[in-house]
Design a protein that fits this description.
With 173 residues, the protein is an alpha+beta fold. Helix content is 53%, strand content 17%. It has a four-stranded antiparallel sheet, with helices on one face. The radius of gyration is 43 Å and the shape is rod-shaped.
Amino acid sequence: MQEIMGFLKSDNYLLILSFMVVFLFIAFISLLICNISMSNKYKKFMKKLGNGKNLEEDLENFMYKVDRVEKQNAEINNFCKYIEEDLSKCIQKIGIVRYSAFKDTGSDLSFAVALLDENNDGVVFNGIYSREMSNIYAKPVDKGNSKYTLSEEEVEAIKKAVDSNNIYKENKM
């Protein structure tokens, strides 16, 4: 321990510290020159890669545009969800039944048409044709049923509509 204390009190210690300070200063200057050189090479490389333009600025502009597109994409996705929710209220299921209402008519000129949304709500039309006149009746449908008395053909048209695939939606599995 006394040897170390003696060394620290001697001039040799200060001389060694002075050499270390000079060496570190030279190393610092050398690293500073290398850093400046590397920075200049980087700038030249970016200009060469960007055909005379600053590629770094181009990349920043590109990233700005990508951010804008991501925001627009999120807005579009939200709008599509809104449309999909509204679409569930549109006519998506159709059932048609043609029949002969009276024995004296020769063909199936009468019809029942059910127009339903995703929740099986909508309307059923019944067009009855005879030689003297034609009548069309409409009855509301709620969840596949009506509070009004339905004919066999109307029930069949509603059943066909309920069993049909939605027009606007694909089967998702």
